[in-house]
Protein 1
Amino acid sequence: MSWRTVSGGRIDRSRLVQFRFDGKSYAGHPGDTLVSALLAHGVHLMGRSFKYHRPRGVLAAGSEEPNALVHVDRGGGRETPNLRATQVEIYEGLVATSQNRMPSLRFDVGQAVGLVARFLPAGFYYKTFMWPASFWKKAYEPALRAAAGLGRAPVAADPDRYLRRYAHCETLVVGGGAAGIVAALQAAASGARVMLCDEGAAFGGGLLDERDAMIDGRPAEAWLGWALSELASRPNVTLLARTTAFGWYPDNLIGLAERVTDHLAMPDPKLPRERLWQVRAREVVIATGAHERPLVFPDNDRPGIMLAGAARAYLNRYGVKPGARVVIATACDSAYAAALDLHAAGVMIAAIGDLRTDPRSPGVDAARAAGLPVRTGAAITGSTGGLRVTGALFGTEWVACDCLLMSGGWTPSLHLHSQSRGKLGFDPASGAFLPLETAGQRSIGACAGMFDLADCMPGHAVMGSIAPNGTHAGLVKGAKAKRAFVDFQNDVTARDLLLATQEGFRAIEHVKRYTTTGMATDQGKTSALNALAIVAERLGTTVPEVGLTTFRPPYTPVTFGTIAGASRGALFDPERRAPMHDWAAGRGAVFEDVGTWKRARYFPAPGETMAEAVARECRAVRTQAGIFDASTLGKIEVVGPDAAEFLHRMYTNAWLKLAVGRCRYGLMLSEAGFVMDDGVVGRIAEDRFHVTTTTGGAARVLHHMEDYLQTEFPGLRVWLTSTTEQWAVIAVQGPQARAAIAPYVQGIDLSPSAFPHMSLRIGTICGVPTRLFRVSFTGELGFEINVPAEYGPAVWAVLMESGTLTPYGTEAMHVLRAEKGFVIVGQETDGTVTPDDLGLSGMIAASKRDFVGKRSLRRPDMLAADRKQLVGLLTDDPGIVLEEGAQIVEDPRQPIPMRMIGHVTSSYPSATLGRSIALALVEGGRARIGATLYVPMPGQTIAVRVVAPVFYDPAGDRLND
Amino acid sequence: MLVIPCPHCGPRPENEFRYAGEAHIARPADPEALSDAAWADFLYMRGNPKGRHAERWRHVHGCGRFFNCIRDTVTDRIERTYPAGTAP
């Protein structure tokens, strides 16, 4: 038989949509959700429960659904698990499968778990499976994880695209039901920017489920159509359907997840799948409605048992009858609206059992007048059935049915208000917590306890709707707690909650964690108040005294794709490329990451290993000349009448007397006296310096300089500009360096006497303006050619044409500088190293009264004799290359844990020296020169000799050629 | 994400700013005159109040300027901001 009504509902009956569920083909209509389309085929069984594998049908009609969770596969890696089937709109070719079933929904071996349910009470994993301990990881956990749980996470990378938008508005209305629409109309009239979002496919909320309501003299559906066209016609209004306000962040920043294409069979490839909106709203109007509460009684979870409001939604919104013979168990008048609508659609109402002894409302009267069998003081105490409910138990009397509807009244959706740290108050009349007034926001409609449609629509005449008076929370009186489900998604029963209180849990946050009630992905939307009431009753206290647990984002699950947006792959942490990057890539360079930069590490010739390539590059620099891309060095232009004085205060050395055209190696300390950065600084003019920093330190140094300039030395007339990306820097280093660049340089006398080491000249190279530095980080004669960044590749290419230069990468650069004992800040230092620790006391200008960090160098700790000092290490076996980071001990025979006196900071095989070399920080290191220390490593202990940290050309003769 | 009113640019989202520690800790004019203990105090000792806190922020992705801010560490509410070098 068909479970469709003859007419009605917001579906397009003229068209059919084919879809598959668990491998079987079905047809529905455009406008159907997966649930409504399945119900139209009489399919209620949609899932298996989390812990006990009990067969489950759909409970609700909205995002609060705890049972009907499905996996949707759009093909090509486009898979989404754990979707609430109530929100999945069908489209031609939709493929959905149920979850947590072994092997099928109808026959599930896991249901045997239900037979041993008494072994799986609250907190079972803390108790039953604790012995023997080793079995937890090996046996229990894998088995439990396989048996329990939700859907499968997709394995393939998500091929879909996600975008992010920022928006500002005066009023953001969350929830497009009656209250939200009225609020949006009011706000829009003022001309202010208004955004209205709703998680559903259509605006209207509860209005969509009303059959007889009249608003301003029009049927609810007609009024809704008018209101939406009115809003849509206003340029200051943004309407966002299928958009969930999932999180509230400080200062009214609301996260919205818009599902753009998931409901389409053939989405426009230009559209993103989902869009994250970050909306900053002056005022947020929360109109998120309320969730109907289930009644808690034994076996209240069989397929065919659902919330009364959900049945009404399926009937009126989708034209689907949830059953042929319906029993209703309620404590709330809204169930009578469902009964009357079902009755009008030709569904037999076998019984209405009202928990209240004397319910009075127009709904009750109308039901009686329609001849429906209303029983008062009738408590539902059980159900029968297997894969579908077959009967309802009232005390001792069974009533046969194929559908059992329940209503314990309505719980305001407080999630967003609570996320905003808004306070809550308990309202005894409705038996629910309500939001209290909070600045920058207001709650309206059912989420503020206004359950009656008329109250939700101030200024509008509402007739013909039944006010949902009446409420019940907790275990139904006279019903047993066993198998009386409170949290459907996490399979928590009233018995579990009672057990938790019996075991001593009092605080609701503890009960929640122990029993896991409210901790599933549905965030306890249907279960929270029932759980509270059960705990409160058992503890002999009240619901407000027990208190509500905290709500946290997200309101419903949000995909990782939405959060990540475009920040994935190459855009996750965008890489910086030096001007000569493409040349290096074309040359087959192997790159390494330095901060966010890509730097060429070495240039292997065909068939060469890394070690061979680095050795060849080092030898070329030492015997001929090499060329190196140093563009990533940080660069800051320091300009102004007080520029020299500023540097004088920021660096340890003296700057006032540095001549124009000369350079100096500068050492920068933090105020605490530790080495923070270093680099060569050149004086371009009296009032202009070209400062270089480490590659990774550029931003930090500029921030540090700005801090002192703005807040400590505001009287200095100095301006700082980052020029890191304005200059391409080509280092040419080696005995042949001068000869290699000479043919291309104009306007600069390159002779050693005219252009000594540590000086700079301004001229041109290949006709391009250059700041040419004579500096060296290799220990060889060297030049660093600064040209405007866009000319870098051209100048590089011309220099390469000479055929005398060998390109070298950062690895050779590291080896060459280590041979000379030049430190790298961040490798030899770690934020606790002083200039003296590095043997750089000579860099401290004793004559200076003050500079940043100076006073700290006199603190007793900074002068201690056993500070770690930079030394060189030579392994007894010259073929052994120590591992960087390896620990150093004095006596390898001491018991473990050994006392560690230092560690290796740099270590390389040196082709120039024909052996390995290492730099290390060692306690009292300089006094140990000549001594033998030990580096314990797995399988061997390596003996090392402590030496001075300069291995090559200690006198520095080669620099001055 | 907080909205921080830069005294120079107006209200901007928090991710344009960088936190810069407690405010109104002036570098001593003559560090050499300080005892070791007094200097260590200046370097390392900071307030950690529950409630109103005077702190520094820099509008690093905006005007680049440091400024002061009174923020409540419990509610995260910003009471006011004012230029560096001025009193609260």
Protein 2
Amino acid sequence: MEEGRISSSQLTLLVISFLFGTSLLLSPGRGAGQDSWLATLLGLGEGFIFALLNLALYNRFSGQSLVEINELVWGPIIGKFFSAAFLWYLFHLGSSGFAIFVTLLKTAIFMVTPEYILLVTGLITCIYTCKQGIEVISRMNEVLLFSTLFLFAFSLFLMLNIFEPKNLLPVLDLPVKKLLWVAHGTATFPFGQIIALAMVWPFLNETEQYRKSLFKGLIVAGIILILGEIRTGAVLGKISGFYVFPTYEAYRMINIAGVLTRLELIPVLNFLTMGFIKASILLYATSLGTAQMLKLRTYRPLVFPLGVLMIILAAQNYANISQHLEFTENIHPLYALPFQVILPLITLLMALIRGFPKQEVSK
Amino acid sequence: MIFLVVLGFGLMIFLEMPELIQKKYYRELVVFCILTLIGLILSILLTLGVELPYLDPLIKKAITGIGKLFY
């Protein structure tokens, strides 16, 4: 079905870009004010637990995607139900990514362009990339990720003159309950979402390396996201919570001697490249998973109709951006739990009860 | 507008279908047709200005409903 193979370093880079995806712009720890970096750090810890749990399942079935594991453990009928739930999550996640994409472009740059024009142009590139397979996605990702990292590092230096460390004080100025809730929110968005890459792990050429690449990717992406939160918090101070896209506003404040100003296109560029990779991976994973679930011989014809359905859902997800933010902050931490933790956990328990794997493939 | 939507779908079907028929991938063809049909109907409804329900309130209702079971 998929002949391409990726190396372990490519998987690491894919994990990093996938986690950057929408979170470089829509900062995950937004609800915690100046403590957002702390919330992200705690969320990274929780994300590690999620990843360990999913790896415990994957270790038993090396070389198979989550959809195939479900089928093997639960049998054809219940397995299909589990796979459908998982694929729905990926599909919905992709459509949310497109929704943020269109909201940003409509509020910041293309004010009067109809949203379907923006969605369709974004979709055509994603469809084309997905049809080429995982190898092309990961190779393109190498180039795009390095340009993103360069722009990120560059912007850190540009913001040094407006960086106010005292904006980050006082630390822990909010109830512990609230902090933990926001931390849990960052664990589900973005760190827990790497479960989507469970469709990509099987295509690694060195099958034993996936654990290492996953953790490397998690750590690097976590550190960079925390740096970004510290930067945004220190530049904007307490008002950062009022903005929809605090990062975007922080870049707006850049002013180097009146020459280098209005650089807010940098985060948009970062978001376009990384969001494109994230959307491509999700569209790819959904099509591949659907093809595996329905026992098709190729996933390629499914990319176009699923992509169209994805952008239709993107327009029908939320009536406005405040609903979207409320969903991300209050609903998504609960909504994502079954897909990220509970379904893999009961699949793992069932696999243990039924004594899988039958043939010994463990390390 | 509807013309553009149908044209877009027609182009995609024209690009995808011959290969599937040639290779005799009939199972794939059926899945492709069903998904494309759903997409086509939904896009035509949207271009006609029919207001489809938003998804977010439904998920919210489902989550609060499940939450009430535990409290």
